[in-house]
Amino acid sequence: MDYPNDLDPGAPVRGGVPEHGRIPKYYAVKAQLTALLNDLAEGETLPTERDLAVRYAVSRDTVRQALRELLLEGRLRRQGRGTVAAGPKLAQPLSLASYTEGVRRQGRRPGRTLIGLDRFPCPPALAAETGLERGEPVWHMERVLLADDERVGLESTYVAVARMPHLDTEFDPDSSFYSYVHERLGIDFGSADERIETVLATPREALLIGTPPALPMLLIHRVSYDPAGRATERVRTLYRGDRFSFTTRLGADSQ
């Protein structure tokens, strides 16, 4: 089967055109807008919906649907009352590397905003997942993730107070948690169990991240372990689907 006209192996086959050759009007407009975006630099403003409707001889509703898909795909972003070309998605590695390292490797500036740091007894579900004792004190830290001051995710971290008793006074919440654990506490990360799913943000999460509730999110659940197999952290991270993709390298199955 042939690749699309642009020879991009990652693009839909035949540019997404069905075998019968008939495509919806919005998709034709989307293809034209994609070609337009290829000539725009990041941050450049698109023409208005009215102007685009006139240019492509379609209704504003058709233009709006095409723009909505490009927004969800991360090719566009809202800025003030206009729509501008977005930069490439952040490609975060699926590894034990921290969020900080992944963002910096792409020339972006990582940051975080602390929402809350609370201490409470370990609930049964968390105990079952991590091997902690029911009722033992645990920290819950919630932070908004930033890339060049743009809100791109929401992270919730759960750790045992016994392993990190001074988290509330020693740790700078705008810094890398992995660096704190490794460099300050001398704890190494040996392995992790990770699960990824697609979800919609709750109204509260959408408000904290600054996105519409209908925007698809990538949700990562992770339990990290030290080399001895003891759980070090349990993390729930919500990433904007329009700003993130994830990469990994697979090897041959040894079994």
UniProtKB/TrEMBL annotation:
A biological process term (GO) from this entry: negative regulation of DNA-templated transcription
PROSITE patterns linked: HTH_GNTR
Keywords per UniProt: DNA-binding, Transcription, Transcription regulation
One Pfam family cited in the UniProt record for this chain: UTRA
Keyword Transcription regulation attributed: yes
Domain HTH gntR-type span(s) in chain numbering: 23-88
Highest taxon, organism lineage: Bacteria
GO molecular function, one term: DNA binding
PANTHER family: GNTR-FAMILY TRANSCRIPTIONAL REGULATOR, MANNOSYL-D-GLYCERATE TRANSPORT/METABOLISM SYSTEM REPRESSOR MNGR-RELATED
Protein name listed in UniProt: GntR family transcriptional regulator
Source species of the chain: Streptomyces xanthii
